[in-house]
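Expect sequence, tokenised fold; for instance:
***
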Amino acid sequence: MFQHAYNGYLKYAYPYDELRPLTCDGHDTWGSYSLTLIDALDTLAIMGNFSEFKRVATLLIEVVDFNRDIDVSVFETNIRIVGGLLSAHLLYKRAGMELEPGWPCTGPLLRMAEDVARRLLPAFNTTTGMPYGTVNLMHGVPPGETTVTCTAGVGTFIVEFGALTRLTGDSVFEDVALRALESLWQRRSYIGLVGNHIDIVTGKWIALDSGVGAGVDSYFEYLVKGSFLFPYPKLMEMFKGYLPAIEKYMKMDDWYMWVHMAKGSVTMPVFQSLDAYWPGLQSLLGDTEKAMKTLHNYHQVWRQFGFTPEFYNIVNSNAHHMREAYPLRPELIESTMYLYQATKDPFLLEVGIDILESIEHSAKTKCGYASVKDVRDHKLENRMESFFLAETTKYLYLLFDTDNFIHNTGAQGTVVMTTKGECVLDAGGYVFNTEAHPIDTAALYCCSAEKTADDDSVGEMHDNIDLLELLQLDDVDDIRDIENDLDSIKRENTRRQNRKKMKLKVPFSDEVLKKAEVLNDVDEVEAEDANIDDDETVVEKLNSDSIDSSSQQYWYQTKSTPQDSYSEYSNDKRSPETKTKLQPPTDTTSSTEDEKATESSTQPIDWTHDNAQHFPGRLFTCPAQPFHSRLSVYGEMFVDD
């Protein structure tokens, strides 16, 4: 599927942004910089096509120039271009590319990502810190640019911009992203919800629809994923601050409706195809039971039509008028992939097969895959968005390729030497941006000021340790005596382990051997000092059905990361010289008695620490918004002045 669409783009559409799969030609959509090629680059590496990855990466470095007089979406350029280049940069070594000294803290694709992001920064130069939706890559915010943008267009930068700060050492990217998040948080309603569109100059909500889907979705997503990537537990606190209101007002029978942000009353009893990312987000937080119930609802919609329409009327069980399309979106398969990794429930593989077969049967053309214009009759539209290669095919592939390196759990990694010292990379823990571009969390730490501070602390501690005093010894000769004793202990442990193996040389059934592996894992720590049972006792123990289930559960628990571990990672260890103290936007709302009653739940967040220094402000500019963000989700909830 991926290869057919990718080859079609190269043959018929390159160097245009996207393929038109019905007429087999190309057209520019988001900026005229071969968008599909950049968006698909890391998918090539994930699928193991390293030779094509090398060819395309070299081509992009040689021919793509972002110094162009064009207006672009800040949001789309960030998630697709900046995110795609960052991800491909971090996959350089795995793909066998020639590395610069100091990689992953330097490299040509990283410099390209930084160049694009700097061209987006002028959009953030607002009194609220919330960015404009559009920016010119050469001249900044266009004259007359609208001040209205969607919530996701404000709050979807911390993953890419935070990664840039860690990899380049320039705090400006992370600072503007955090300030935008803070500004939205301050403007939540008193029942704990945000609207759909906001005026980024006045801070006034323009569209009061509140939901988890279109116009808001990746804002919630980035609060969670930002807390995974960076030492800011308040990001998760913010998400958890929204969650009670989402569950109270939006959730009905495992669907999530659209409600009024201030009243909580239902405004649209619809499911949007973009809502389908939500079960995946729930699974990342460990709430797999709720996630499975909601995903089951969404899958039933898919089974009804063969696709999910943009809007599905829950009351009438039908596609909403004028919202019947399915533009090859990835959200349902994204959640399916996350949930399968969390539960291994085979039902989820059946969901994946349903999605795969529907797209292959109804959307395939001779040169690619076409968007579905109407899910009721499967008529097609002449467009294949770049996210089909960046997200939809990638998540499908990862659902079925359970041994892919993306799913690594830390059991293996690659040791590299950088200008920041020794690092272990590619060990798992990848975090996908909202365009499915994976970010290696270890690489961000490797290049960050936090690692430098940690290494300095370890070095200082090492230098200050008096080993003789610590061990209460008089001279170095005593240390040699201890080393000899340790060698004796090691030899004795080896002898005991060999003796244990000899004792276990009896013919066991396959079932017994499997139980032996469990017991061996659980009892490994105690094996050195335990007395070995005689053969009959061992056989009796292994053949019994009374293996302690709690000991198995112990390993399941200890091998997974507790959800609260991110909230415990509290202190930002960057030196004061490398970060800017963020100034929260001024809250322009007036105080009332009701406001005072809810003051404890609406306190602004202080992102900084006592030792942070304030640096002079810079000229901030920012990226542009996609066309669909210029409209309300539905229209009725726009507020008149």
Remarks:
- Residues 504-508, 522-641 have pLDDT under 50 and may be disordered.
- Residues 476-503 form the longest helix (28 residues).
- The first strand starts at residue 18 and ends at 20.
- DSSP finds 24 helices and 23 strands in the chain.
